[in-house]
Design goal:
Elements: H1 41-44, E1 45-47, E2 53-55, H2 57-65, H3 72-87, E3 92-95, E4 99-102, H4 109-119, E5 126-129, H5 140-153, E6 158-160, H6 168-173, H7 176-183, H8 186-198, E7 202-205, E8 209-212, H9 224-227, H10 240-246, E9 248-249, E10 269-271, E11 279-281, H11 283-293, E12 297-300, E13 309-311, E14 323-326, E15 340-346, E16 349-355, H12 370-390, H13 395-399, H14 404-415, H15 419-452, H16 462-467, H17 481-487, H18 491-497, H19 542-550, H20 558-568
Parallel strand pairs: 3-7, 4-5, 5-6, 8-12, 9-11, 12-14
Antiparallel strand pairs: 1-2, 4-15, 7-8, 10-11, 13-14, 15-16
Length: 586
Amino acid sequence: MDAQPTQNLEDNNVPGSFPEPVVLDRYVLNVDEPATHKPTDAEFFISDSVGKLRPNHVMLKDHFFKEGRLEEEHALFILQETTEMLKQEANLVDVKSPVTICGDIHGQYYDLMKLFEVGGSLNDNCYLFLGDYVDRGCFGIECLLYLYALKLTYPTKFVLLRGNHECRHLTEYFTFKRECLHKYSEQVYEACIESFCALPVAALVDRKFFCAHGGISPELNTLNDIATMDRFREPGSHGLLCDLLWADPVSGFGEEDKPNSLVPKGTTFLHNATRGCSYFFTYAAACQFLDRTHLLGIIRGHEAQDNGYTMFRKTPTRKFPSVITIFSAPNYLDVYHNRGAVIKYANKNITIRQYNASPHPYWLPNFMDAFTWSLPFVGAKITEMLLAILSICSEEELTEDGSSEEEEAESQALADMTPADYQQRRQNIKNKIMAVGRMQRVFQLLREESEAASELVATEDVSSQVAAGLRVAPDALNVQGTQIGRNIRSFDDARRSDLMNERLPVFEPDSSPSASPTTMFPPPSMRLPSRRAGSMGEGLNMEMLIKKTLEEDEDDSPIVERLAERIARGRRVTGRPQPLKRHETT
């Protein structure tokens, strides 16, 4: 008789057994995994009509869509080649129609792909971008490299202007520098900054429309003022370059002549308190500029718009909107719920094309990995366990008299040490108990920070601070998730919550005698993983926060005193541990 084969006890059919877990497959199969392959030279380079090497923009479009990255040398090739090309362009670029005019992008690469769908083919169209390609969104480097690759391939079809975020000061203060360091390197970031300084600052479309990121300036009398300025530098806190990047139409633009207007009659420029620099320009200032330059209208970006665009009051002579604001980042910051829009100008007709936001991959705040993000949660549980161990004595056990055996053990323990040794041991135990309690507060704080990291402030906290002209440094970019859900229900709510981020970040000038006077902004330190503000206005990382907490000097608790006394005297503890608290993350 043939022997029956023995059944493997680990067989899946055996009751109580479990199949071998598969840890290499993706948990959500309908979401494609990010591209891990970096293009080779053969895949990255193509030759143009004259045999010059150019980046393969068709490959890059799909590669970046799959969250792929480039070899550093390829990224530097795009940045350096584009910088040299941009340096050859004038400060004020002439653009011929038909053209699609695009507003702020802000690192929303997947919405940029939608923009090109609605913007039209390059066969009978060109593109004019008004700046702000990076910061706030998580795909700024992809937006920049792809647009630069298109610029290298189609030099006359793409005109890229500079926005206020294309500078060292804001990219260090917001997210772009951190993004470059996470995805590439410091060298790539520096190459980006060099390219920003080479971007033109304004454009004329058919010699009819003045296009810039921000607006006009009291220093802008003729278009020649732009043609002769020095753009190859970091923007200062004032001056023509600053105004072209930062200026805004005044609130109530076009209604300054009404009795209830707060703008003094005849005013053309007001200090821009919302931005903390540059000016608000009035309807009168816009009309005077258009009359002096014989232009039809001003087209600019710089401000989020609920519908993606706003057309302001028409000029009295040509009956055309004096100012048009265009914004091309739909559902800005994932909370504005706004539409994106572009302007299509062809055959002397203007058409506004709107579009909604596209789905995009999710990044943890500050480009953290999941392990780093989870550390505060793990730490909080560890400290809860330590506190539970220290809390195994009930209140009654701490106050009741010990048994004869316990008193004998305590007497023996006290006999083996001097009074000074006993007091030292008691103090050491007390310090450890206090340290565990402080550590619990640290990890609870970090846990809340990880759960609710955002770049918005609660709306009820904004108005008074903005009215006072305050900027709460990195802490201005933080709010609890519950507050976001409670306060942001509309575009206006999001705008109020984000108002403080519209300001030019403040800095403390060097007042030492050796400091040289300058209008340039020294770069602030990069944002730390935690955006809580410290006494010096910087965010606190975990190490610093733990150190500061352990150094706190608090009033002694009677419970801690008695617990330290019991442990120091050698008392045996017998109580049941208290249950650990449960936390739910939503």
